[in-house]
Amino acid sequence: MTTDAPGSGAGPGALRLTRWTVSSGSNVQSRAAVIVEASGHVWQASATGNGAIDALLEAVDAALADILGGVARVTSYDVHAVAEGPDAEGIVTVVVRPPDDAAGERSSGDYAASVRSTNIIAASVEAYIEAIGAMLADASWHGAVATAGAKAAKARGSGPARGARAELDKDAPTDATSWFDR
Questions:
Q1: 15 near 148, Cβ under 8 Å?
Q2: Residue 181 DSSP code
């Protein structure tokens, strides 16, 4: 996947979608879970939605609410096919604005990202993350990731860091779908 988001990328505070999963089908509500990392901090959340993409964006919103102080507003979402056939790529472009609750210089601006992929669901969530990353790269948002990360670390106390690696207990049963039961 490629991105055209200015200011996003590998700089300090850049958001990185580490993992995502989604379950969707007819006659069921879609469910998604995401893990997002930035500046050594990890945020994760799960959510439901009206389809796979909506559920993923809702999960991202829940994960990043502490950083943004609300929910980024999607003002434009566009999917454009660039070829024909089953292996054809599409370009997903997402434009976001700061949350309604943002104040001062943080309350305005349009931030866009485009991601190209054969997987439109993956491109959609990546473009959303990249657009939010572009917003956070704006000077008015400087320090938002670090501040939210420090608050989360303080709330966790002296326990292990969120996202810290632990040894796998090979004898323990593993249930990769447990997050669906939330």
A1: no
A2: G
- Helix (H) / strand (E) element for 122: namely helix 120-137
Look up tokens 């559920």; give the residue: 55
- Residue 168: pLDDT over 60: no
Domains of the chain, start order:
2-144 (3.30.160.270)
- For residues 74 and 128, the answer to whether their CB atoms sit within 8 Å is yes
Q: Are 70 and 57 spatial neighbours (Cβ–Cβ below 8 Å)?
A: no
Greatest CA separation for the chain: 54
| Rounded Cα distance, 74 and 76, in Å | 6
Cβ proximity of 46 and 63 under 8 Å: no
> Which residue type is seen at 105?
E
Rounded (10°) CA dihedral 129, 135, 137, 140: -150
Q: Say if residue 172 is exposed, middle or buried (CB neighbours under 10 Å; 0-12, 13-18, 19+).
A: exposed
d(CA 49, CA 54): 5
Q: Confidence band (pLDDT; 50, 70, 90) for 87?
A: confident
- DSSP-assigned letter for residue 160: P
**109 pLDDT exceeds 60?**
yes
Packing angle, helices 52-68 and 144-156, rounded to 10:
90
Q: Confidence class of residue 51 from pLDDT cuts 50, 70 and 90?
A: very high
